[in-house]
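Late entry, evening session. Most of the bench is empty. Finally got around to the prediction I had been postponing all week. Sequence below, unchanged from the version circulated by S.P.
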Amino acid sequence: MISRSLPLCLLTGAMALGSLSCPAAAAEKPKARGLITLEQAYDQTLASDQTIRIAYWEVRKANLLPWGALTRLGPQLTASGGYTRGETFTKRAVVETVTEVPGQPATLTSPAVPAITSIVSTDRTTRVHSGTGDVGFTYLQPLIDLTVFPAYRVGKISTVITRLEHQFTIRGTLYGVMGAYYEVLKQQRLVEVDRETLRLALFAEGERTATPATFRKRLQRALDRLRAAWRDHGIG
């Protein structure tokens, strides 16, 4: 005779599931939720992660360093200009004849009266504005600059370093995304296995009143389903 009592391990597993408060809730199949793939998680991270974006622009900036070193051999054109403004004050004496009493012509009854005039000297100041402008251009063509070659080499090395840092940032970020993604999947699979274990325990509990042969068949089918679920989720 095979004992139809519930195995202790199944009871322990059923009692350990604190998230399932009742057999009816445990027997219900969880609703499928929309999940994103790992590639979609990668795409969202690459499009929104600020660290990767900053590393990308650092590469763009480093690409300009070799060109900046070559500009030392290029021609240089310098323009200069100026404007000078000045004022000149000129003081001079102006002599004017002023008529104090106008003259009167002779008449039949009175002789002519000459006009009375006076000479007045006045100082006048004249202001003259002046301005002077100048424009100059200087063209310089270096024949050789020994600092160009080391600076160009430094620019190329900096470009390689920033590219490696950019790739390292991408790999580190995506590795973290992958770890979090599979951790979530692992927890979901564990929940599914726990639900299946509890369902098996409830099934075995309900089969206590069945005949030994029927109990063995149903229990064997339940165990086969549980082992299949373990194999599908990589457990055991």
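Two things to note before I forget:
Residues 8-72+144-232 form one domain.
The helical segments are 8-16, 23-27, 38-48, 50-62, 65-70, 148-206, 212-232.
Will write this up properly tomorrow.
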